[in-house]
Amino acid sequence: MSQQRDVRHGLRIGRTEFVRSVREYFRDRRRIIGFGFVLLVFGGNTVFALPIVYGAGRAARSVTSIPYFGFVATALPVVLLLLASLRTAERIGNVDAEELILMTVHPRAAVIGLISSEIALLALWIGLPLGAVVIVFALGMGAPTLPVTAGLVLLPLFCWAAVWGYAFGIGVLRLLRWLPGLQRILKIGWAFVLIPLMFGAPFIGTSIADGSLSMGGLLAALTFEPLQSYAELAFVGTGLFHTPSIGAVAVLGILVVLTPVGLAVATGQATALWFTDDPTPAQPQRAEGSSDGFETPQPLASTGAGAIAWGHLLRAVRQPQELAHLTMILFMLGPGAAPFLRSAENVGPIIAGIGVVLATYLAGATFGLNPLGDDRPAFPLLLLTKLGPRTLVRSRVLAGLAIGVPIAVVVPLGSIVVGNPSLPAVGFAVVGCGMCLTAATFAVGIGSAYPIYEEREFWGTETVVPSTGVMMVYLFVIGPGTVIGLLLMWITLTGPVNLSLPVAIGVGVYLLLTATIPYGSYRYAVRRYRTYTVQ
Amino acid sequence: MVSTDADAVAIEATDLRKTYGTETALDNVSFSIESGTVYGFLGPNGAGKTTTMRLLTGLTQPTSGTVRICGAPADDRRAIASLVGYLPETPPLYEAFSAREQLDYVAELRDISSAVATERIERYLDQFDLAEDADKRISSYSKGMKQKTAFVQSVLHDPAVVLLDEPTAGLDPRAARRMRESIAEFADEGTTVFLSTHILPVVEAVADEIGVLFDGRLVTEGTPEGVKSLAETGEDGTLEDAFLAVTGEDQPIESTADQ
Question: Rounded distance, CA A513 to CA A519, Å?
Fold first, then answer.
C-alpha cells in the first residue's frame, strides 16, 4: 500500500520536475536562442546522417555487419551509468524545495520522482534523435517492429542505469561530505585528467587514420559478448535474429532483478544524505580573515584603477571557484597544440607559443568576460561612487594584464632553456604583451554587451560564469589573432621576408583590426558602464 | 503510536542536544506544548531557533534527546508528514509555477481530494489577497506574496501542528495582521502553532506561551505575562524588555561596546 502510494507520489514529482526543467530551458529569449542553435547544429547533423543510416539499414545482412554494433552495445550501459551518476552528483542529488518535499512525501517517492524526471528528460533530449535514427534504420531494413523491440530492450537498461547511477552518485556525495578536501582535489584532478585527454585524443585519431592503431582490434577488445547478445534482442522478429543466447537472457534477468534492488539502495543512500548533517563543523575549521586593511601594492597603487584591480585579484585568490570558466581553454588548447607537439624539434617555439596563447586568453577571460555580472550585487553601489566608468573598466583591464603579462614574458623567455632561439623568444614575449592588452580590452567590451547575473553550475561550482556565446566569440577571435601574430613574428625573425603587396596589405589589415577592434570594444564597455541602469 | 486527543501534548522535546563538531547549537532543551497552544519561540540570532525547528520536523537528527509530535517520534516520516505543516524561513516554492499550480501540486502530494483541495485553495487565496495573482508565475511575486503562498501550502492539509519560522517577515502591515488572525483562528480550531520570530509584538499578540532560547539553552518559559513578571520589567514593561532582560542584552550600547 505504502509502496503504491510512493510510486504515485513519485510519478507526480517526476512530472512536476520535468515541467519545471522544460520551463527553465525556455525561461527567456537567450535560452530559446541557445536551444535553437543547439537544435540547428545537432538536429542538422542528425538529419544529414539519416540517409546514411537508411543505407546502413538496407545493407544490414547480419547484426555483426552493423558498424560498431558490439562496441556501442557494450559502451551504452557504462555511459548511461556514468551519465546518471554525474547528473546525480551535479544536479539531482539534492531536492529543490527540500523542506516541502521531505515534509510531504516519503524519501522513496522523492527518489522515484527525481529519477523518473531524469529519464523523461533523457528521452526528450537523446530519445528523440535516437528514435529517429532507429525508425529510419528500421525503414531501411524493412522491419517495422524494430523501433518497438528496440524500445523494449532499452527500457530495462535505462531503468537499471538510472537507479544505480543515482545510488552511486548519492554515494559520491556522501563521501565528499565526509571528505570535503577530496572535493577540491577532484575538481583540480579533473583538469589534470582532461589535459592528457585533450592532448591525447588527436594523437589517437591520427594513429587510427594512418593505420598504426588497429580500429578493428580496439573495437573487438572493447566488446562484451553478453551485452552484444542482449542488444541483439532488439532484432527479434526481423531476419537478422535467430535464437536468444543464454548471455542475452542472463543480462535481461540481471537488469530486471537489480533495478528494484538499486531503487532500495538509492532510497537508503538518499535518506542518509538528506536527513543527516554534515559531519564537519558548520563553522569553517580555519578562521579565515585578514588583520590588515585594504592596502594596494605598487605599481597598482599609483592609480585608482590599479587599486580596484588589486581588489579583483584579491577576490580571485580568495574565491578561485569564481574563475571556473577559465577551464574552457583546456578544450581549445589541447586539440590545437597537439598536432604541433608531434614534431620534437620545434618543442621550444611551440611551448613559447602555447604560453603566449594561454597568457592572452587569461588576460581577457579572467576578469573581462562578464564585468557587469561579476560585481553583483555590489555593482549598483560601485556606480554610485565617484569612480568614473573609465576607472572601472580599466581596473578590469589592468587586473587581466597582471595575470597575462607575466606568463606572456616568462614562458617564451623560459623556452630558451629547451632550445628556442633567443631572438624569437623575445619576439614572442613582445607579441604576448601586445596581445594581452588586445585581449583584455576586447574582452571587457563583449563581456559588457552580454552580462550574466544568475549563478549556475559550472565545473562543479555554483557561480556566475560568462555567457557561453561570449566565451566562444572571445576564443575564436583572440586565439587565431594571437597565433597569426606569433607566426608573423616567427617569419619576420627567422625566415626570408618576401613582402609582396598582398602580404603587406594582409599584415596591415591584421594590425589595423588588432588595434581598432579592441579599442572599439573598450569604448563600448565604458559607454555601457556610463549608461547602465539597474533593471 | 499517534495520539489525536485534543488535550494531549502536541509537541514534546526532551533533553534535546545538537552539536556540530565542537560547536553546541542546542544544550539539553526540553519543553512540552499542549494541543491548541500558540507557542512563541524567541531568541537572538544564532541562539538555535532554526535548529530546534528542524529537529521538530525530523529534517535534522538530534545528537541526543527525543522529539515527539502528537505522540509520534520525529523520525516517523509518514506520521510527521501528515501531522506537521512547516513554513521555513526561506519559502520552499517553485519559481517556475504559479501559486495555484504550486498549491494544486502540494494538494496532490498530500492526497487531498480534488474538491476539498479546490475549496481550500480558493478560500486561502481570497483570505490572503492572492486570488488576483494566483495564475502568475511565483518568480514575479514580491517577498510577502511568496511568504503568504508558502504559508498556505504549509497548512493546506489541515495539520495538527504548524511550525512557523518568521512567518511575518516581508509582509506589509495588512498581510501581517491577516497572518496573526489566521494563527489565532488555527489555535481556536485546536491546531498547535509553534511560532519562531524576532517580531516581539506578533508574539505578544497571539502567543499563549513563550519560550526564550539563548545560546542554545531555554532560559525561560511561561505565559507572556509570567515571563514579563519573572524578568521584573515593571508595570509598563513590554515583552521586548523581558526578552532583553533574560537574554542579557539590556545593557546600554556603550557598556556593551566597552566589554
Answer: 10
CA distance B226 to chain A (A): 34
A282 and B23 within 8 Å at the Cβ level: the answer is yes
**Closest chain B C-alpha to A447 CA, distance in angstroms:** 26
Pairing of strands B72-73, B64-69: antiparallel
Contact call for A9 and B84, based on CB within 8 A? no
Nearest residue to A366 via CA among A408, A340, A343, A397: A397
CB contact A93 to B (< 8 Å): no
B80 contact residues in A (CB cutoff 8 A): 103
pLDDT at A286: 47
- If you measure CA to CA, which chain A residue comes closest to B75? A275
pTM for this prediction: 0.76
Nearest Cα of chain B lies from the Cα of A177 at a distance, in angstroms, of 14
Long-range contacts (CB closer than 8 Å, 24 or more residues apart) made by A190-199:
A190/A459, A190/A460, A191/A327, A191/A330, A194/A327, A194/A330, A194/A331, A194/A334, A195/A330, A195/A334, A197/A334, A198/A330, A198/A331, A198/A333, A198/A334, A198/A335, A198/A338, A199/A334, A199/A337, A199/A338, A199/A341
Contact B109 A12 (CB under 8 A): yes
Task: Convert the pLDDT of each residue in A386-417 to its tens digit.
Answer: 888 899 999 999 999 999 999 999 999 998 88
Residue B231 CA to residue B223 CA, distance in Å, equals 12
Q: What are phi and psi of A284, to 5 degrees?
A: -60, 140
